[in-house]
Design goal:
280 residues, alpha/beta, Rossmann fold, six-stranded mixed β-sheet, three-stranded antiparallel β-sheet, globular, disordered C terminus
């Protein structure tokens, strides 16, 4: 049985069409015009325990909306999703103890207190024993070098330091699944390397399933044997990175993904195929 299973997963938003000018704004007060927008459109998605899956797409493709449905933040408009036996939005109180989440632009650490105090608060929230807490911090420190950061307030940390601490915070309760949304955004080469090494270690040591969304395809190449590509809410490709290379040749992953977005078929170089994406 798959750890994550989604069937026909769909999320539709209503977008407000504003009229131009003062007269248009006055009319909007009395009658508003909306249009539907499918951010995620009928996606099927299966993930087995222990997998590391890269989930990629252009801005507005539907990546973050999918992650928010998988974590229970958003309720699907249609379709069905189950993660580790839970329906995320319905069983959210229990379900959130099974997952870890890191959003690159947001922190779950308290801004004005020392990092270790945030960790201690999270230990109590997730009912982690003192022994497990100590052991995990030791493991995290080996790779992420957290010891020198633990007694600094979060506001004093650089972006790379905060991301290392956020990753540790998300994994203190040993979740079965880790959702990462742009975890290396804005980081230098050394910081990225440390985070990638850490994620490999966590996946190997704890068999943690990792879903990674990122615009940095270097993260995908370094970490994820499997990649899912989404565009305009629809799944374009879901399979192994090796199979992508086998179909398209050993070009840079960035170039392969760009051709998929543009509708080329494997082997094409010049003309665009208007019939579809062409990944059989």
């Amino acid at each position: 049985m798959a750890l994550i299973e989604a069937r026909g997963l769909t999320k539709e938003f209503k977008i407000f069409n504003r009229r131009e000018g003062v007269l248009g704004a006055f009319k909007d007060l009395f009658k508003r015009d909306y249009r539907p927008l499918k951010a995620v459109d009928n996606i099927d998605f299966l993930v087995e325990e222990g997998e590391m899956v890269g989930y990629i797409g252009a801005n507005g493709a539907g990546k973050s909306t999918t992650i928010k449905m998988l974590t229970g933040i958003l309720v699907p408009t249609a379709g069905w999703v189950e993660v580790n036996g839970y329906v995320p939005y319905r069983d959210r109180e229990v379900y959130t103890k099974q997952i870890g989440v890191v959003f690159g632009q947001r922190s779950q650490l308290w801004w004005d207190i020392a990092v270790i105090e945030s960790f201690k608060l999270l230990r109590r929230v997730y009912d982690v024993s003192r022994e497990d807490f100590r052991r995990r911090l030791e493991l995290f420190d080996e790779i992420l070098e957290l010891k020198e950061l633990l007694y600094l307030p979060v506001r004093k940390l650089s972006l790379g330091q905060r991301m290392r601490c956020d990753l540790a915070a998300a994994l203190l309760h040993n979740p079965k699944i880790l959702f990462l949304d742009e975890p290396t955004i804005g980081l230098d080469v050394l910081a990225k390397s440390k985070i990638r090494d850490f994620l490999k270690e966590v996946n190997t040591e704890y068999k943690t399933t990792i879903i990674l969304t990122t615009h940095d395809l270097g993260d995908i190449e370094a970490l994820c044997p499997r990649v899912a590509i989404i565009d305009k809410g629809k799944m374009l490709y879901d399979g192994s990175v090796e199979e992508l290379y086998a179909q398209w040749g050993h070009d840079k992953l960035e170039e392969i993904v760009k051709r998929i977005y543009q509708g080329y078929r494997p082997g094409q170089q010049g003309t665009r195929d208007k019939g579809g994406v062409g990944l059989a």
